[in-house]
Design a protein that fits this description.
The complex is a heterotrimer of chains A (99), B (539) and C (494). Chain B is built from 17 helices and 15 strands. Chain B has 539 residues and is an alpha+beta fold. Chain C has an 11-stranded mixed beta sheet, with helices on both faces. The chains are: A alpha+beta (99), B alpha+beta (539), C alpha/beta (494).
Chain lengths: 99, 539, 494
């Protein structure tokens, strides 16, 4: 299967929000390439007629009644936050909008 | 959010883009292009609790008071799906004539954003709960100049008594969870741009959402903006009838994203589409399509291609501005949510839900149209003005169908239009309208005075009776006073009076006008007319 | 005092129940053992002496009040620090979570408390359970009591070291690809990965959701089974929890201890041998299988051809799920935040914190997972890996149609030296060869000590069909009974 380039690793790190250093990029590019070529064998195994398994034990329709449960105490939660203000979580300025 | 990288090339625009591009007029757009539109509508369900936890799904509570390990995405917390939300979604699917999946899964949509506690949203990807449905949308009366892709029922030339409706095909109805809300601090007008930091409230995070996606709507031509609005309106009415959401656009419990593209007439391929977000009212749905059509035509006419992107609609200017470009778009890395098991609604369950469907708007409209004795054209106008509920409530408060319709589609529609609000947004209730009409029916008010009372109510002067009292708006019914005014008018217009005596009854109108003038309009024109004719035939 | 630490949990509970010993004294003995040994072992991340003694006192008070105590009341237990504990720092051995005090308990912790067990503290692990040696811990590796230069296995190496070193008679681990069984094998104790869905995952800091299972460690099969019964059972807070009766594992352990396996068919997985398997391990396993046959079991050889692809499938599925599960550690709501000087953007703070807060192996797996889930690669990697999962489940189904349990070595090698292997990710991944198939198929599997190779313990893995955990315990108890003395008894004194 395809090999993975340093630039691809940089892109993946960005997608995963990891500010990796150049050294890390170099190391990871080599290691990921080794790992991905080692797992490449699975391409040969499973045919199209095999259904994927997403859940080891098959269950369906596990649902909960629409009944209220306890919420957390706001002060406790905000105390554990890196920063809070006015009952809200304070986060640094956002560069761009997503949704 | 997603700076370009080596794997996602950003296509540079031609230099021409630096020059301002003038949007085309709507007529110019229609002359050269066919619009293709599509709507993605998010409905916040009105369940008691959130989609995957027992926190209250409430609007307007103190920030971060409805949060728990699950909806805050704390390590180790697991989601469990809300049965009522699933049932609501199935009800919506059934009401939209969808097929209900016999087996489907939730999926994780992965992207980072601070209002999303887990940095993935539990949604559905290629296995929506409901799919392949439709909604027949009635259009406001008037002409449909072009055949809408052969999908217009009835008379495409829009003659008065024919229905005109468009079948909007529904691609999918799927479930997902809402995000939290951010306050952007330090910048101008609460915008994210220029803010120094943001403050996040997760009360909304995890509230169940249903997303309803149409298939591309083609061939609607100049009526595209109107079709978009009619669809949004009637979808809202449908959801409201189901009782599964309060569907209030101003509170965000119904949110529309509008996709728009232009296809040059004669071309075989569709154009590149943009997705307009932040469309917060039904009126804005129409305006957003219209303005995006005009903008895109301007861009295309300048020889520049349309960039596939998210755009934001601005209520104040009626324009859209560029958001994130899809060309640097996120790879959402969808995969089946391992923490939730598949949904497999059995036939019996779906059938029992089908039995729970209430009378839907289409059936209800047909019934009301018959009860109110309205022609198709008039009913279409009622729908177009989004006045069905208002008229029904006015009738329930004691007005006749005819009078209720007259007020809401006449004077009140004019006011709404000039104020730029929806009818529902006017500061008058159906009950108040019915009260005004009762005063008219009793002869206490004439039409002109009644309009003044309405104006007073809208201006916040109180109940109709209070406005009447405060403004002294009462019909002059005292026959002596009126008689004197009539006599004076006859004396002052002897020549006209003679014509009436000679049998030209129509000429009496001038005398009525004169009396109304001297009584400052506070007389009942019919009574005045009767008095004049009595006097002139008696003398 | 010292005799307390050598006693099995079942006996300690008996002493508490009949008033021979107080839970407080038993707890204090174990706390003392931790104090005297943990500098060398580094098994614990957090010791909650105060909380433990308070819990012990509460148990003693219950007994004094004449209450009938649950089976393991008053018995100390070590809990892997990936299990969320209300009011007690939970780190998953990651810098990114350091200092996080959870506001809730994992379901299994609630169950432990209800059963009167006494949590001593939180044990070390590979960061977010990603690793096979505890060398990926932000707190440094734990050490194997058999040889302090060697690993106690991973990722639940703190728990296995604690139990093997008599710091606790019981421990909770979690197993995603072998993280209970392999450490049990490498330290000469018993560890069981229950059927997927058999024990609630609510409150386990998620690594790979479709594979993660919590399970028990003990020095004896019966102790392990008793703990299993405390933590197992349906939990409405976990959608993947099975709503089925808990298998009668303690009874099975008692039955197995009589050493009679007549009527049982045991399949030896032929694929889990050969290249990469230490000869010493292979011969101990062969001797153990011969022993099983002597106890009346019929032994057959089973080919499970798709087990050969388990490693590849696992190292795509687990990183994929982890890339998503670990996205929540973003410096916004809890845990570490780095570089917020009130000027830096959210994006910079988020990416900087994640780079500083996660160790190399976690970052490697996040990047692999991000890659495997990407639009262009999903089908070739994640999709394909899930098909392999189907094929592995079919192999199990075929095998179990002809035998009651499957056996193999738990680990192809005995405890290895800390250091060299950590440099080579693939060499480390290969350590999990034997344990991965059961994880991918969701079937239960136990590791039971069965002998020594080069003076270090070897574990036999026993795998059974879904919800037939009792078969694992029965055979494991028989193996245990067949040994002249417990494997652990030969471990050097610390």
């Amino acid at each position: 299967m395809s090999t993975i380039t340093r630039d691809e690793v940089a892109h993946l790190a960005h997608l995963a929000r990891l500010a990796v250093t150049d050294d890390e990029l170099d190391t990871f590019a080599v290691q990921l390439d080794v790992i991905l070529s080692s797992v490449a064998s699975i391409a040969d195994v499973a045919a199209n007629d095999i259904l994927p398994t997403t859940h080891a034990v098959p269950l369906t329709n596990v649902l909960r009644a629409d009944e209220p449960g306890p919420s957390l105490n706001r002060d406790t939660v905000l105390l554990a936050a890196p920063a809070a203000e006015g009952g809200r979580f304070r986060v640094p300025r956002i560069l761009d909008t997503e949704e | 959010m997603h700076p370009p990288s080596s794997m996602t090339p950003v296509v540079q625009q031609p230099d021409a883009v630096t020059a301002p591009i003038t949007p085309r007029s709507f007529d110019q757009v229609i002359a050269s292009y066919q619009p293709v539109i599509g709507l993605e509508t998010h409905i916040e369900l009105g369940t008691r609790t959130k989609m995957f936890c027992g926190c209250a799904a409430a609007f307007g509570d103190e920030p971060n008071t409805n949060i728990c390990p699950v909806c805050l995405g704390l390590p180790g917390a697991l989601p469990v799906a809300n049965a009522a939300a699933v049932e609501s979604a199935i009800l919506i699917g059934l009401a939209l004539n969808c097929s209900i999946a016999s087996w489907c899964r939730f999926a994780r949509k992965n992207y980072f954003y601070p209002d999303m506690p887990k940095n993935f949203q539990i949604s559905q990807y290629d296995e929506p709960l409901c799919f392949d449905g439709w909604l027949d949308v009635r259009l406001p009366g008037g002409s449909v100049d072009e055949d809408i892709d052969g999908r217009v029922d009835g008379n495409a030339n829009g003659s008065a008594d024919q229905p005109s409706s468009v079948r909007i095909e529904i691609e999918r109805v799927h479930m997902e969870e809402d995000t939290g809300k951010s306050l952007h601090v330090g910048g101008a007008t609460g915008r994210i741009h220029g803010a120094t930091h943001s403050l996040v409230d997760y009360n909304r995070a995890g509230i169940p959402l249903v997303e309803i996606v149409t298939k591309p709507i083609t061939g609607t031509g100049e009526r595209a903006p109107e079709v978009a609005r009619a669809y949004a309106t009637q979808l809202r009415d449908l959801i409201r009838a189901l009782g599964v959401s309060d569907v209030r656009m101003e509170q965000g419990s119904m949110r529309c994203d509008v996709n728009t593209s232009l296809q040059p007439i004669g071309a075989s391929e569709w154009g590149t589409r943009t997705e307009t977000k932040n469309v917060n009212s039904l009126r804005s749905v129409e305006r957003a399509v219209r303005s995006e059509m005009c903008r895109q035509a301007g861009v295309l006419d300048a020889g520049i291609r349309i960039v596939q992107e998210t755009r934001h609609f601005h209520e104040d200017t009626g324009q859209t501005t560029s958001g994130r470009s899809k060309e640097e778009a996120t790879d959402y890395r969808y995969f089946p949510e391992p923490d939730l098991v598949p949904l497999a609604p059995e036939t019996a369950w779906v059938d029992s839900l089908r039995e729970r469907l209430p009378e839907l708007p289409a059936e209800k409209l047909a019934r009301l149209q018959a009860e109110w004795g309205l022609a198709e054209k008039d009913m279409a106008a009622v729908l177009g003005a989004d006045a069905v509920q208002l008229i029904a409530a006015t009738i329930a408060a004691g007005a006749t169908a005819e009078a209720a319709r007259k007020w809401w589609l006449g004077e009140l529609a004019r006011r709404a239009n000039s104020d730029g609000v929806e009818l529902e947004g006017l500061a008058i209730t159906p009950k108040q309208v019915a009260e005004v009409q009762q005063l008219v029916d009793r002869g206490s008010l004439n039409d002109k005075l009644a309009r003044q009372v309405i104006e007073g109510v809208l201006a916040g002067e109180g109940e109709p009776s209070q406005v009447v009292a405060a403004r002294g708006l009462e019909v002059v019914s005292d026959t002596d006073t009126l008689g004197a005014a009539v006599d004076a008018a006859i004396a002052a217009n002897a020549d006209v009076a003679q014509k009436v005596r000679d049998g030209k009854v129509a000429a009496a109108g001038a005398l009525v006008g004169a009396v109304m003038k001297t009584t400052k309009g506070q007389a009942d024109a019919q009574t005045v007319r009767t008095l004049i004719l009595e006097r002139l035939s008696a003398s | 005092m010292t005799e307390f630490i050598k006693l099995p949990a079942a006996e300690l509970a008996g002493l508490v129940a009949d008033g021979t010993a107080s839970a407080r004294d038993i707890t204090q003995a174990h706390l003392d053992r931790i104090t005297s040994t943990d500098e060398r072992l580094n098994a614990f991340v957090t010791v909650d002496a105060e909380g433990a003694l308070a819990t012990a006192d509460a148990v003693d008070a219950r007994r004094a009040a004449g209450e009938q105590l649950p089976a393991l009341a008053g018995v100390p237990i070590a809990v892997k620090d990936i299990v969320v504990t209300n009011g007690i720092e939970t780190t998953a051995a990651s810098k990114i979570l350091r200092g996080w005090i959870p506001p809730y308990d994992a379901t299994i912790v609630t169950k432990l408390r209800a059963a009167g067990l006494v949590p001593l503290g939180k044990t070390n692990l590979d960061e977010f359970a990603m690793g096979s040696s505890t060398e990926n811990s932000a707190f440094g590796p734990s050490h194997n009591p058999w040889d302090l230069a060697r690993t106690p296995g991973g990722s639940s190496g703190g728990s296995s070291a604690a139990v093997a070193a008599y710091q606790a008679p019981l421990a909770i681990g979690t197993d995603t690809g072998g993280s209970i069984r392999q450490p049990a094998s490498l330290t000469g104790i018993v560890g069981h990965k229950p059927t997927y869905g058999g024990v609630s995952r609510s409150g386990l800091v998620a690594y790979a959701s479709s594979l993660d299972q919590a399970g028990p460690f003990g020095r004896t099969v019966l102790d392990t089974a008793l703990l299993h019964e405390v933590i197992a059972g349906h939990d409405p807070a976990d959608s993947t929890s099975l709503d089925a009766p808990v298998p009668a594992v303690a009874d099975a352990a008692r039955v197995g201890a009589n050493g009679d396996l007549t009527g049982m068919t045991i399949g030896v997985v032929s694929n889990l041998s050969g290249e990469g398997y230490e000869p010493g391990v292979v011969s101990v396993i062969a001797a153990t299988v011969a022993q099983l046959e002597q106890m009346g079991a019929k032994v057959v050889e089973c080919a499970c051809p798709h087990f050969d692809y388990a490693l590849a499938a696992y190292y795509l599925i687990a990183p994929s799920e982890c890339s998503s599960n670990l996205a929540r550690f973003d410096a916004m709501r809890y845990g570490l935040r780095v570089g917020d000087d009130r000027q830096a953007s959210l994006e910079a703070v988020m990416a900087g914190t994640r780079d500083a807060g996660f160790g190399a192996e976690v970052k490697r797996r996040i990047i692999i997972g991000t890659y495997a889930l990407s639009a262009g690669y999903y089908d070739a990697y994640y999709g394909q890996a899930q098909k392999v999962r189907t094929l592995i489940s079919r192999d199990f189904a075929t095998a179990f149609s002809g035998c009651d349990v499957l056996v193999s070595p738990t680990s192809p090698i005995v405890a290895f030296e800390l250091g060299p292997r950590a440099e080579d990710p693939m060499a480390m991944y290969a350590v999990d060869l034997c344990t991965l198939p059961a994880s991918l198929a969701g079937v239960p599997a136990i590791s039971v000590p069965c002998g020594l190779s080069g003076g270090l313990p070897v574990g036999l893995q026993i795998m059974a069909p879904v919800l037939a955990d009792d078969r694992c315990y029965r055979v494991a108890a028989a193996v245990e009974a067949s040994l002249n003395s417990p494997v652990l008894a030969t471990a050097p004194q610390l």
